[in-house]
Recover the amino acids of this structure.
């Protein structure tokens, strides 16, 4: 097998490792590309290409994350990971765990870990790498990696998100939610939302966004029921789509350009949180991005009473 073929076979795994460490589709793709360049420049073939490339992409991702964390501290408003429409790495035996590990809630928990803890957790707990491979990847001893893994696991377990175990029931609930959303059905939405549901948006100061989180089933239901039917009247559509392994949707304008993504956390038969990503910098990989400010102006104009 040629180097190109070996790399192509491992590329889904490398991207999935990098994305979970970085929370950014663009940065993960850049890390994978840099890993290829280093692999291509290596004069001798490594004994294990998988171990070599996993170590390279992990080290690159750790370096990028250390820089990114400084930038995220100055981020305007809530910061969410870039929405991932589909995880390229699949393992049928561990599909549920992989989906949960890439959820927005899980990635936000990972943000609380140090870059080394995050990398060790991803390699060990998500992808089941042995400690010798983890140690080689992060440049620490096996014992140090075991300690990092214990600390990371403790932090993650303390706040680990739980999701609807029955994915069919979860998806059915999401379908009812989007139907009620289109109809502007306040009571229908209230029935599907947890009493303490929260709705939060990430615009990064580059798109109109909620001034603050909206809390409670009544407030969230009334806001959604008033806004989304009005958006539909100016040509926007809601396209249900899995976001980060959980139920969600892509909101598109009349030209099919991306306005925002919406992700749902579902537990105990109710929606616990709704997260919106509106920052255009985080949506470019989804498709051509709409002008959210122009849509906001059109939305406000459509709600003005006739003169």
């Amino acid at each position: 097998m040629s180097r190109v073929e070996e790399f192509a076979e491992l590329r889904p795994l490398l991207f999935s490792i990098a994305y979970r460490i970085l929370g950014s589709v663009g940065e993960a793709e850049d890390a994978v590309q840099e890993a290829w360049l280093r692999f291509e420049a290596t004069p001798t073939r490594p004994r294990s290409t998988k171990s070599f490339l996993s170590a390279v992409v992990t080290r690159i991702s750790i370096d990028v994350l250390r820089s990114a964390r400084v930038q995220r501290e100055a981020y305007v408003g809530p910061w969410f990971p870039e929405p991932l429409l589909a995880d390229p790495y699949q393992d049928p035996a561990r599909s549920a765990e992989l989906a949960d590990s890439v959820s927005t809630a899980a990635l936000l928990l990972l943000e609380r870990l140090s870059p080394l803890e995050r990398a060790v957790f991803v390699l060990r707990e998500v992808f089941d790498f042995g400690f010798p491979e983890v140690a080689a990847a992060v440049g620490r001893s096996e014992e140090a990696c075991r300690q990092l893994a214990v600390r990371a696991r403790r932090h993650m377990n303390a706040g680990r998100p739980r999701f609807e175990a029955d994915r069919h029931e979860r998806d059915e609930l999401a379908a009812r939610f989007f139907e009620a959303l289109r109809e502007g059905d306040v009571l229908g939405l209230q029935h599907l939302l947890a009493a303490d549901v929260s709705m939060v948006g990430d615009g990064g100061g580059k798109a109109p966004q909620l001034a603050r989180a909206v809390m409670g089933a009544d407030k969230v239901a009334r806001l959604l029921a008033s806004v989304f039917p009005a958006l539909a009247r100016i040509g926007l559509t809601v396209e249900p789509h899995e976001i980060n392994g959980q139920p969600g949707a892509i909101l598109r304008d009349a030209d099919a350009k991306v306005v925002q993504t919406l992700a749902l956390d579902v537990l105990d038969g109710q929606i616990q949180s709704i997260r919106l990503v509106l920052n255009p910098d985080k949506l470019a990989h989804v498709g051509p991005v709409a002008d959210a400010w122009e849509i906001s102006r059109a939305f406000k104009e459509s709600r003005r009473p006739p003169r």
Remarks:
- The radius of gyration is 21 Å.
- The first strand starts at residue 193 and ends at 202.
- The mean pLDDT is 93.
